[in-house]
Amino acid sequence: MLQNGFAVRSAMKSNPHIAVVGAGAFGGWTALHLLERGARVTLLDAWGPGNSRASSGGETRIMRGTYGPDQPYTETAARALKLWVKYERRWKKQFLHRAGVLWMVSSRDDAYERGSLEPLREAGIRFQELSTAVMKKRWPQINFSGVHWGILEPECGYLDARASCQAVVDAFVGQGGTYRQLAVSSDGLESGLLRGLTLSDSSRLKADYYVFACGPWLGKLFPETLGEVIRSTKQDIFFFGPPAGDTRFDANLPLWGDHGKRFFYGIPGSDRRGFKVADDTRGGPFDPTNGERVVSQATLKRVREYLAFRFPAMKDAPLIEARVCQYEQTSDSHFIVDRHPRMDNVWLLGGGSGHGFKHGPALGEMMAELILKDAEPHAVWRLSRFPGRNRLGVSPILAEREACPLPE
Ligand SMILES: Cc1cc2nc3c(=O)[nH]c(=O)nc-3n(C[C@H](O)[C@H](O)[C@H](O)COP(=O)(O)OP(=O)(O)OC[C@H]3O[C@@H](n4cnc5c(N)ncnc54)[C@H](O)[C@@H]3O)c2cc1C
Question: Has this prediction a pTM greater than 0.90?
Answer without folding.
Answer: yes
